[in-house]
Here is the input.
Amino acid sequence: MSQFQFIHVEKNQGIALVTLNRPKQLNALNRKLLNELNQVFEGLRDDASTKVVLLTGAGDKAFVAGADIKEFSSFNGEQGTELSKEGHMSVFNLIEEFPKPVIAVVNGFALGGGLELAMSAHLRVASENARMGLPETSLGLIPGYGGTQRLPQLIGKGRALEMIFSAKMIDAETALGYGLVNQVVPQEELLDSAKKLAESFMKNSIIAMGFAIESVNAGLLEGSVGYDVEVQAFGDCFETEDFKEGTQAFLEKRKPEFPGA
Ligand code: CAA
Here is the structure.
């Protein structure tokens, strides 16, 4: 699958290793990358030789540092809503509903859309140096790729809101304690540990796992109106002065001064 600019796929003995490959921008999710990710996952879904998918980021610094701030910094509300909606439909829901296990292999920063991507996977294995957070409020935004829904599902409402309000990162051990990741291992053992986990799953019925994924998701989707509220609210943020200041400050590498309401 070398037709992709930002994604590398390697298949071996039932395991597909999908590597997001934009290391200079810390694998930030631009539209092209998301579009490629959609194509990759659609291809793997229909590929009988793939049993388990591992999703990771290139380099030793980041899994994914979020949605591409440069790309969306001049968007208006309508474009913001569209960005969120498109991401939900084409990638994040596709991965969450994927009929075979998807393991996020978190090898460094997983921030904003990056943590949201890891949370859309069925489970997460992290390296000791991984750092996770939802920094969107520091940009005058909210998480727009499912973070307002999947983070409280995984770690509870109080901790989720603290992470969203503070915009701070947590380290891998804290994430393990919160139940945000399933395992933490030294960075040099990360991929092997994820592969071992995948191999242990492959001893069982992948078809049954597909049904388990569908059933677990069905229970959690009870309150799915939350996703629609997130999409609209994410777009609304783009019409605020706080968003303009937050994204400009990031691009100018300075601290934001939010004008507020
Ligand atoms: N978008 C675009 N570019 C990004 C990026 C992002 N999310 N994250 C990092 N980069 C770029 C930087 O601009 C920089 O590019 P240049 O060399 O051209 O200046 C390059 O990647 C390396 O980054 P840093 O120099 O900043 O590296 P650092 O080690 O000093 O800091 C970091 C690392 C703490 C992760 C920092 O890069 C950072 O804070 N990144 C942004 C994190 C963030 O706010 N993510 C949320 C995005 S919004 C979102 O995701 C919305 C949503 O829910 C849909």
